[in-house]
Amino acid sequence: MKKAYQQVVDKDHGDCMQAVMASLFELPLEKVPEFIKYKEWFEPFWNFLKSQGYEYIGMRHNRNYSNLMTPTEECFRDFKFVSRLGITPKCLYKYNGINGYFYASVLSPKYFNWSQQTTHAVIIDRDLNIVHDPSPSYKDLKRYPLSRILGYNGLIDLYLIEKI
C-alpha cells in the first residue's frame, strides 16, 4: 500500500474515498475517480474496481452501530441481524482484499454529530486494525467517535473487494 492523503476535507464532500482507493491501488490521486462529484457514487466505484481487475462482493456491518442508531427496531418487532453480514473478529480471514487490505468506514471525528452521521473512509487489515487514515489532520488521532461503544476500532462497515 502506498499512502495517499485527501486534498478536500469538507462535510459530506471530502475526497477520503478517493484517497483510500488511490492508497489501496498505489495510484496517484488524480488517476482515481473523484467520487464526491457524483450524486450516486456506487456505479463509478464499481467501474473503477473493474478497471483495476477487482470486484465488489458485498459489505459487512457493525451490529453495535445498527443497534445504536435504530434502537426501536428491537423494541417493537422481532429483529434478526444476519450474522454472516456482520463484522466479527475473524470475518476477513477468508478474503484477500487488495494485498491484504480493505476499505472501511468510521464515523468522522471532525464532523461527528448525533443527528446527522458523517462517515469517513479508512484502510484496515484482516485483524480490523486501521492502518491508514487519509486525513492528514488525524495523524495523532487516538480513537474514532464511539469506538469504545461500537468496538472493532469504531468501524461501522467494511467493503469486500476481491480480485476477479
Notes on the structure:
The protein has 164 residues and is of the alpha+beta class. The protein has a domain at 59-163. Helix content is 21%, strand content 21%. It contains five helices and five strands; from the N terminus they run ααβααβββαβ. Strands 1-5-2-3-4 form a five-stranded antiparallel β-sheet. β3 and β4 form a beta hairpin. The longest helix has 10 residues, at 42-51. The radius of gyration is 16 Å and the shape is globular. The mean pLDDT is 90.
Quick recap:
21% of the residues lie in helices and 21% in strands. The chain is an alpha+beta fold.
- Name the helix and strand elements from N-terminus to C-terminus, one letter apiece: HHEHHEEEHE
Number of helices: 5
Please provide the count of β strands.
Answer: 5
Briefly note the structural class of the backbone. alpha+beta
In the predicted model, the low-confidence regions spanning at least 5 consecutive residues are none
Largest sheet report: 5 strands, antiparallel
Morphology call = globular
DSSP strand content: 15-25%
Q: Gyration radius, to the nearest Å?
A: 16 Å
Amount of helix: 10-25%
Overall mean pLDDT = 90
* N-end to C-end Cα span: 19 Å
Strand order of the largest sheet: 1-5-2-3-4
Characteristic terms for this protein:
164 residues, alpha+beta, globular
SSE diagram, text form:
Blueprint: H1 16-24, H2 42-51, E1 54-61, H3 63-69, H4 72-76, E2 101-107, E3 119-125, E4 130-132, H5 147-150, E5 155-163
Antiparallel strand pairs: 1-5, 2-3, 2-5, 3-4
